[in-house]
Amino acid sequence: MLLKKLNLILGYVSGFLFFLTAVIMLFDVFSRYVLGAPSVWAQSISQYMILTAAFLGTSYCLQSGGHVHVEILVDRVKPLVRKILMTIGYLFALSFVGALTKSTYDYALLAYEFQWDAMGNIPFPSVILYGIMIFGCVMLFITLIAKLIACLRAKDEKGGN
Question: Is the pLDDT of residue 49 over 80?
């Protein structure tokens, strides 16, 4: 399925960005404490990369079952009740991600209109970061829909998981 492949690619990109952030921060520590000259760019770039990695990686994390969830109640009920609870959970998640996407889109429009730069030592257009956030939210929303459909179609005891 195309969605799974795209999410996998985004997962790899996210992981690489987290790794690269660690390398940059190690460089900054070395530069600050060994060379006595801290970099002016490492913190800002690292923040942008972590934000990007987090939003690009959420859909893969959901797809692979990596999101934190509490199963104490869900594991102790009958399959039909489990499916209902899972469906309700997915609907709540869709509502939250939909609201997050909408508010991020509104901020992206403001950032574009007023040409906001992200805070930090390096001027960077906020609209690019908001665009990445919107893309990540849309991917998460689509993945949630796919998980919801799988849950509703599932005939197994786990309700599609």
Answer: yes
Query: Whole-model pTM?
Result: 0.91
For residue 153, the tally of other CB atoms under 10 A from its CB is 8
- Both ends of the chain: CA-CA distance in Å? 17
Per-chain mean pLDDT for the chain: 94
**Element spanning 38, H or E:** none
Mark residue 69 as left, alpha or beta (left: phi above 0; alpha: psi -120 to 50; beta: remaining).
beta
Among 110, 40, 97, 24, smallest CA distance to 67 is for 97
Q: Where are the alpha helices (DSSP H) in the chain?
A: 2-33, 42-63, 79-114, 126-153
The residue ranges of every structural domain in the chain are: 2-153
Residue keyed to tokens 């869709």:
94
